[in-house]
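Sequence in, structure out. Go.
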Amino acid sequence: MVDPVPEPVLEVVEVGPRDGLQNESVLLGTDAKVAYIGALVEAGLRRIEATSFVHPGRVPQMADAEAVMARVPRPDGVSYIGLVVNERGLDRALDAGVDEVNVVVVSTETFCRRNQGMSVAESVRSFGVISARAKAAGLRVTATVGASFGCPFEGEVAPETVAGLARQCAESGADEIALADTIGVGVPADVTRLTAAVREVTGLPLRFHFHNTRNTGYANALAAVAAGASALDASAGGIGGCPFAPAATGNIATEDLAYALRRSGVPVDVELDRLLAASALVEAELGAHNPALLGRAGDFPGTLSEERSAG
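Output:
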C-alpha cells in the first residue's frame, strides 16, 4: 500500500511585531517586543516578521530594530523576517542577522512616493538590487506588492498592473510574491481575479496580506486558501495598520484566522491557548483592547461547551 502524500501545511506568517506595532501610538520598549516575539514562538509560529529597517524618523516604532534582533529567541525552525525598503535597510538587516527580507513595491505612483519616496519604476529597480544582494547572502526574499487591491489615493488598481509588478519581481529573483490589501478594500471576488492574473505570469508561491478595515479580511483569507495561497499574513491581536495610508486599520488577527482555518479543515501548526496569551501580553503593553475576537468569545468546541455544561 502506498503511503498517502501529506497535505502541505499552510504557513501563517506572523506580522504583529512589525506591521502590528508600526501603526500603534504607544511605542513599546525593546523588552516588551522581545517578550511578545518569544510568546509567538512559544505558540508555534515559525515565520515571524520581527521588525523593519526603515528610518526611525518615519517609523519611530521600529527604531530599535537591531536591539530586538539581537535578543529574539533562536530555536531551530524559526525564521525571522525584516522589512527593508532600500539598500541601507538591507545593510542593517544583514548585520542584524535576519533570515529573510520582505521588500515592498507599491502598485501606484502616489502611494509609492508617499510610502517610499520613489517612483514605481525606481522601486522595482531597487527591488532587483536588494534581491540580488540578499540572495547572495543566503536570505529568502519576498516581494510584496503593496496596495494590490486598491490605493487610498488613486482608487482601483487593475489586476494587470499587479501582475506586471509580480512578473518583474519574479524575474528579479523573488522567492515568494505577497499580494497586500494594504487598506482593506478587497472582497473574495477580487482575490480570485487577482490570483488568476498573477498566476498567468509566475508560478512562485503566493502569500497574501489582508487588513480587516471593512470586515472582509477573513473571507478574503479563506478565498486565498481556495485559490492556492501558500502563506497568509496575520497579526496576533489584530493590531496594526499602515502609517502612510489613511484609515488603514489592523491586520486580520492570527488567532481568529487560525480558528477559521482549523474549522475549515486547513491544518495550521499553532497552539491557540499560547497564541491568546501572546495577544493578551501585547494588549496589556498597548493599554487598549485588541480588535481580535477569539480571546473574548473563547475557542469552540472546548471553552464554550465546557462553560455551558458547567452552568
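Check: The longest helix spans residues 120-136. Residues 16 and 235 are 4 Å apart (CA to CA).
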